[in-house]
Amino acid sequence: MEAITTNRTNNSNDREWTAEEAIGGNAEALRALRELITFPLLYSRESRKLGLKWPRGLLLYGPPGTGKYSLNTFMKPTPHRAVIFVNSGAELYSMYVGEGESLLRNTFRRAHLAAPSIIFFDEADVVAAKRGGKSSGNIAVGERLVSTLLTEMDGLEQAKGILVLAATNRPHAIDAALMRPGRFDLVLYVPPPDLEARYEILNVHTRKMKLDNDVDLKQTAEDTELFTGAELEGLCREAGIVVALREDISATVVCNRHFQTVRNSLKPALTREEVNAYSSFMKNLSLVSSGEFKSSGNENSKYHKRWLGSVSPVSIGIISFVVLVCAKYIFTHSNHFPNELATT
């Protein structure tokens, strides 16, 4: 797989990091997201000639438990890079009337000034909660936020280089109006990591650990079905810090028995019933079958004219991280844009 890289700082002595080195992931997901994020920016002229209309919104949904660390680490704006705006849904709620809506409008205004840019909403189900509940203070604020978000997203019709990316653990709680064409045109279901992805994640989080020759990460991956990326990271940390050092304070390597001890004491927070509920949400969407085609070689990967179905089993944290890396890569290396871009 072609590496997608981004410089962490302006220090030329810092080497570049790949998505695989930073968090572990899936080639199919990387390829699909690279197309979704970079093509509209790199090939804007070509797309205009062909009369193509790129999606303005991408909604990621799936189980909780991964991604916040990577987002915070790689999101810090630096000079000469377009801004990637991040909003937590909870941050938009305020005791002062109208303050959340004002912050939301200001976010879109800054994105327009800094274009090409990405607006990222974590906890999208909070800022875009379903309307129509019993009247209360929080519900009234929520309805005003949804109305403001709808207005701002509709205002992107003539905008260039702005993408709204949102992630949620509760897709059923999002207002249906945001699922209509012109808003979140693409919906991506992100299942928990499969066997291959779990093995990659374990490799990432043990890269700096000194492992004994008897450590079998493939077996550990097989024994951790339904584990999220965060839980796999915690397993590796506990095996090294808690078990190995508790057994022998002078321990120099982590052995397979340490991993097994931790694994036997853990239970994944995610259940099979919850996974089935996430899967059923995509099936219940009004998929438009016209123009459907399968992406390269993956039977589970289907692009739809309006909706994007399951791409591949990989955590939401990995997906979000890859989106940010792709965007920063384009903002840093593309000749299509000026170097002086607004930053926060």
From TrEMBL:
Pfam families membership: AAA, AAA_lid_3
MF annotations from Gene Ontology: ATP binding; ATP hydrolysis activity
**InterPro entries given in the database record:** AAA+_ATPase, AAA_ATPase_domain, AAA_lid_3, ATPase_AAA_core, ATPase_AAA_CS, P-loop_NTPase
Q: Could you list the residue ranges that cross the membrane?
A: 307-331
This protein's UniProt keywords: ATP-binding, Cell cycle, Cell division, Coiled coil, Membrane, Nucleotide-binding, Transmembrane, Transmembrane helix
Enumerate the spans annotated as AAA+ ATPase domain: 54-194
Biological process terms in GO annotation? cell division
Q: Which SMART domains match?
A: AAA (SM00382)
UniProt family annotation: Belongs to the AAA ATPase family.
**What is the name listed in the Swiss-Prot or TrEMBL entry for this protein?**
Cell division control protein 48 B like
Q: Which organism is it from?
A: Actinidia chinensis var. chinensis (Chinese soft-hair kiwi)
Q: What is the lineage of its organism?
A: Eukaryota, Viridiplantae, Streptophyta, Embryophyta, Tracheophyta
